[in-house]
């Protein structure tokens, strides 16, 4: 039987229903200075700060940390933590400024913390942000191992926020390459590796110079160069492709996406799909499949923008649906 994200324990539809149940209770809104200027559900939450909007994102590394534990190598997951937050800010054209982290751990460990800090520092340098604080909680009765998450603060002029509302049919879609699985879908990844009988220490069949675990710990790409494109081109929409794969595109527009020339997925995706017997549409609904970030802009600017960013024109905006080479994703 083909594996799916839901069968691995993560049902995105159920998760969305649970989130909806939570957010329906969040009815109080501050007024005046500091009032919210976006609804819950976009990539970042924005509040009024005069001429500017302050933006907040919050995300974590997820079960990728379990692979780090198996490999006893924790020096990349800090990059993932910052990337998952910073990329969400970039998906609204917002400059990241500062970051705080949260580590919940069953037992304080000097070496784990040192390596986490190493990754956080590298992620901060790439993102041009300062880590201004954080919190570590030792919770032996609650946590088995540790969890790593964080919050990023950004700022943008209110008239420069990119929400996707200007997207229209005919716009070009540019895809920027990912570095691999990034930091989503690891419940399914781990289920596939387990059921296929592999160890994370086994050589990666597509490149025997590395192990499966090392391949899966490749850190999430930080797309800080998107800010340069925002200042140069008439960008209509931006999307960070995370959990839910291409379904994330619904977050920025009611229109559809016809991906006729997708980026080539890295070998890790082919390996996971084959070993798990995962259907093609399920892969695109779970993983980034080689495309970690999407830019939507007028067709006349697409060639120049794709060259500048090292991406590729992968398709265009259509009236409805999400398709990849004719395959209906939804």
UniProtKB/TrEMBL annotation:
Nucleotide-binding in keyword set: yes
Family from the record: Belongs to the AIR synthase family.
Keyword rRNA processing listed: no
Species assigned in the record: Candidatus Methanoperedens nitratireducens
Catalytic activity: 2-formamido-N(1)-(5-O-phospho-beta-D-ribosyl)acetamidine + ATP = 5-amino-1-(5-phospho-beta-D-ribosyl)imidazole + ADP + phosphate + H(+)
Pathway linked to the protein: Purine metabolism; IMP biosynthesis via de novo pathway; 5-amino-1-(5-phospho-D-ribosyl)imidazole from N(2)-formyl-N(1)-(5-phospho-D-ribosyl)glycinamide: step 2/2
All copies of domain PurM-like C-terminal, residue ranges: 168-321
Residue ranges annotated for the PurM-like N-terminal domain, each copy included: 42-156
Classification via HAMAP family: AIRS
Name of the protein this chain belongs to: Phosphoribosylformylglycinamidine cyclo-ligase
Lineage: Archaea, Methanobacteriati, Methanobacteriota, Stenosarchaea group, Methanomicrobia
